[in-house]
Amino acid sequence: MADREVDFLLVGGGMASAHCAKELRGRGAEGSILLVGREPEPPYERPPISKEYLRGDADRADAYVEPPSWYEENGVELATARNVMSLDPEARTAKLQGGEEVAFGKALIATGALVNILRVEGAENEGIHYLRAFGNADAIRADAEGADRVVLIGGSYIGCEVAASLTAQGVECAIVALEDVALSRTFGEKAGRWFQRRLEENGVEFHGGEELAAFEGDGRVRAVVTASGLSLECDAVVVGAGVRADAMLAQRAGLEVDDGIVCDSKLRTSVEGIYAAGDCCSYESVVHGRRLRVEHWDVAMQQGTHVARNMLGDDADYEVVPYFFSDLADWASLEYVGPAHEWDEEIWRGDPDGGEFSVWYLKDDRVAGCLSVGRGEDLAEARRMLADRVDAGAAREAIADAGSDLSGLG
Ligand SMILES: Cc1cc2nc3c(=O)[nH]c(=O)nc-3n(C[C@H](O)[C@H](O)[C@H](O)COP(=O)(O)OP(=O)(O)OC[C@H]3O[C@@H](n4cnc5c(N)ncnc54)[C@H](O)[C@@H]3O)c2cc1C
Q1: How, if at all, do strands 173-176 and 205-207 pair?
Q2: Is pLDDT of 352 > 80?
Q3: N or C: which end of the chain has fewer CB within 10 A?
Q4: Residue 410 above 80 pLDDT?
């Protein structure tokens, strides 16, 4: 016998769970809701952690999805600093840290992602950081204060955003990246070079095409050494080497898992009544015609909301085109829809020198992705054309002409 019963169990204290709870109540669901999260805070947005929170321009509470009082006022039981230890899909029970067993009607698994840890020589030195939660940002900020140099490992969002945030605070930063050009894995080399120039002209050193070999130190990290022999002295390191889905709980419970928790197009896992959303969810995307897992703030929010609707009987496919944004201090802001894992053509629109442009990534004449710097209206059209699989090949000239109206295409 379980110790108690809830109608909706939301596992994971992040964006996806919070928005699921909000939508359940917003739609008038009257059943009991229990949201269980490992971290001590109520659900919060992570993007500020590498941006305004890291720079000291925002508080923790600014990032909360809802203030703590919202949960009580809306009859959502919030269990923070608490792990869900196991799920029994047949008995439909969850065991919580401390031993309590909770029976549930429907459940969402939104356990997020885990950072990839680099296990190279010297990795045990103090001052080597990873970034996922508030506490990590506090530790980075403390170490960066008074540091002669901080080295960022990784040329993707986390490395570039943290380098920008710390440089804007007067800390000297150098990025060491496997890729030749910053952010090029997602946006290609030409757009990547545009962002890299913003970083470099604001004082960030970029060392591309370099593989990390070791950290050197005396108990505290003192240098980063690469396979080519480059050695960069530093007082702290921040590693942004990607994340992987945290599917451990689901896997132990016997749910189907690949690079995330396997879901169908309705975000249903392999067990009836159990859904997944956010960074841990690998879903069948009807928009892309393939399986997809992304780590985007907006997707976690939209999927959490969508799961709530399906829990209440909508039974609809999740068809939102994934959206992402990133800021490099106040030097550059980007928005992106896609994701284009591969493309055979790039069409540039607008004025890169003037700082307003979009890049359209086409695969087989269809829009596979679009990057916007200051051209949000382009993004909206790209999103539509991607979702509707519009023949963009026939519209090449219109797309390339920044003055043309794209709303009639398709
Ligand atoms: C530093 C940083 C900057 C980012 N910047 C951007 C950005 O600019 N733009 C953008 O689009 N995206 C950004 N992201 C990505 C975005 O924040 C994530 O996609 C989003 O947070 C995913 O939400 P989620 O609810 O799936 O997972 P999470 O926010 O990771 O929440 C999952 C929670 O579940 C908890 N949990 C795991 N297992 C258990 C368990 N067994 N029991 C209880 N709790 C458990 C975890 O500890 C975690 O607190 C950023 C991420 C980081 C880390």
Answers
A1: parallel
A2: yes
A3: N
A4: no
Average pLDDT over residues 341-348: 95
Binned at pLDDT 50, 70 and 90, residue 54 comes out as: very high
150 CA → ligand 1 middle, Å:
24
Max CA distance (Å), the chain: 67
What is the C-alpha separation between 266 and 306, in angstroms, rounded? 8
Q: Is 248 a residue whose pLDDT tops 90?
A: yes
Q: Please give the distance, rounded to the nearest whole angstrom, from the Cα atom of residue 298 to the centre of ligand 1.
A: 11
Which of 119, 111, 114 minimizes the C-alpha distance to 132?
A: 114
- pLDDT for position 146: 87
CA nearest ligand 1 atom 27, residue: 112
Ligand 1, atom 35, lies closest to the CA of 12
Q: Ligand 1 atom closest to Cα of 326?
A: 8
Which atom of ligand 1 is nearest the CA belonging to 278? 26
Return the H-helix or E-strand segment holding 34: strand 33-36
What is residue 322's DSSP assignment? P
Pairing of strands 274-276, 243-245: unpaired
Distance CA 282, CA 285 (A): 9
Secondary structure (H, E, C), 228-241: CCCEEECCEEEECC
What pTM was estimated for this model as a whole? 0.97
- Average pLDDT of 230-239? 98
Predicted pLDDT of residue 87? 98
Let me know: does 264 contact 283? Beta carbons within 8 Å.
Answer: yes
Nearest atom in ligand 1 to the alpha carbon of residue 298 is 11
What is the share, in percent, of the chain residues with pLDDT greater than 90?
98
Residue closest by Cα to atom 38 of ligand 1: 111
Task: Give residue 409's pLDDT band: very low, low, confident or very high (50, 70, 90).
Answer: confident
Q: Which residues line ligand 1 (CB under 6 A)?
A: 11-16, 36-39, 46-47, 49-50, 83-84, 110-113, 131-132, 158, 246, 249, 278-279, 295-298, 300, 324-326
Planar angle of CA 38, 41, 46, nearest 5 degrees: 90
Q: How far is the CA of 246 from the centre of ligand 1 (A)?
A: 10
* Strands in 70-165 per DSSP E: 76-79, 84-88, 93-96, 101-109, 113-115, 128-130, 150-153
